[in-house]
Every structure is written in C-alpha cells, then in structure tokens.
Write a structure and sequence with these properties.
There is one protein chain. By secondary structure, the chain is of the alpha/beta class. It has one domain: 3-Layer(aba) Sandwich (Carbamate kinase). It is 39% helix and 17% strand. It has a 7-stranded mixed β-sheet with strand order 3-2-1-4-8-9-7, sandwiched between helices. Strands 5-6 form a two-stranded antiparallel ribbon. α2 packs parallel to α8 and α5 packs parallel to α7. The relative contact order is 0.16.
Length: 230
C-alpha cells in the first residue's frame, strides 16, 4: 500500500486550531518517529490553519484586497508552521523546509518538511506535485474530520459519510476545477483531485485528531477514514 517514501499532508487546523497545539504536535512527532524506525521516510506538507486566517484577517482589516498578496500571507503562515514542525524531529529531519517545488531536493534524512509553494497552488496540490516528484502513488491527508462527507458536516446535518470513492465519482460530487468556487466545502482540492486521477494517485483522508488512527493506517491495521482512488 505504501512505498518507501510516504507523502503526508498535515492540516493546518490540527497544527493551529487557534493557538499552536503543542501537545498534539509532540504526539504527532512520536508517531512519525516510530514509523521511521520501520524503514519508512516521510514528506510532511504543513498547512496554515488559524495562523493563516489570523494574518489574512488582519491584512483585510488594513484594507489589503489584492488576492495575490493574501495568498503570499497564507503561504508564509504555512512556512512558519512548517519550521515549527521541523524542529520536532531534530536530526531526523532535513534542516531546511522544502517549499520551492520547481527545484530538486537532495535529502538523506528520514523526514522532509514542506510548506506552501506559490499563489494559486493549494497545499493539496503541493502534495500531489511532491508525490509525482518522488514517484509515490499514495498521499495521506490528516484533517479535523474523520471522513469525507457529501457536504460540510459542520453545516449540514444530512451530510453523508463516504468511505470509498473513485476520483471520477469524487469529481462528480464536488465539481471539477472549472466549477469550484472559493469557500466551497472541498475535502481535497479539485485541481489536486483531477491531477491525482490523471496520475493514478490514491488519497487516504482521515481525522488527524486520533493519532492512533494514523498509527493503524501506517501499520496496515483497520482504520477509519475515506479512500479516494482510481
């Protein structure tokens, strides 16, 4: 199921639901370290979370309206969070976060931390680009919900759980890159989804709050979440 290099997207909402969740990050670090001892290597792409929203809201309060400027602020937030996550791993991690995906990276360490690349490219898209770069066909996405739902479960009580879905059907449910609208509930970015379909990459979406669940997935034990494939 997994190649030697595992691409893992760590949602910003887990890193910084509001303040930085240091207890969670320490536990996350312990799980990843455990599996690096089993000859696995990880590329961890870190999201912006509340850090991103806080800075972008302050910019808007100051009258910033340029979308590109707001994107760069969000990208900077992911890089700040990524630097924090990198420090969890000490010498196990490559000493520099990898964000310029147009360049090659030579890393011998067990962990490589990545962050936002450029405006218009979500961290989901970054994860797909990295999976292609390292020739792996699997991405793990950790979020603050346990499954992919047909609608945002926080807003709609009739949202239904999806446990297994093809990329073709996923794009029917959530729209393609042309129909996606800002603010729409999208569990995995539609441009990234289309790219995953094209490159036969499968994505495991699971709730990251339960790190035992991540441990189970990495250990090939029963896990809770959604598999998107084909």
């Amino acid at each position: 199921m997994f190649s030697d290099v595992i691409v893992l997207k760590l949602g910003g909402s887990l890193v910084a639901p509001k303040e930085i969740d240091t207890k969670y990050l320490k536990s996350f670090g312990s799980i990843i370290k455990k599996h690096t001892n089993k000859d696995k290597r990880f590329v961890v792409i870190v999201g912006g979370g509340y850090t991103n929203r806080w800075y972008r809201d302050r910019a808007k309060e100051m009258g910033v309206r340029n979308t590109n400027d707001l994107h760069w602020i969000g990208i900077a937030a992911t890089r700040l969070n990524a630097e924090l996550v990198r420090t969890l791993f000490g010498r196990l991690a490559h000493p520099v976060i990898y964000w310029d995906l147009s360049k090659k990276v030579n890393w011998k360490e067990k962990v490589l931390i990545s962050a936002g690349y450029k405006p218009g490219c979500s961290t989901d898209q970054d994860a797909v680009l990295i999976a292609k770069k390292f020739k792996t066909k699997t991405i793990i996405k950790l979020t603050n919900v346990d499954y992919v739902y047909t609608k945002d479960p926080k807003k709609f009580k009739n949202a239904k759980i999806i446990k297994n879905i093809s990329w073709k059907d996923y794009l029917k449910v959530f729209g393609n890159s042309e129909t996606h609208k800002p603010g729409q509930h999208i569990p995995f970015d539609t441009i990234a989804a289309a790219n995953s379909k094209k490159n036969s990459i499968e994505v495991f979406c699971l709730g990251g709050k339960s790190l035992k669940n991540l441990d189970n997935l990495l250990s090939r034990k029963p896990w809770r979440g959604t598999k998107i494939h084909g």
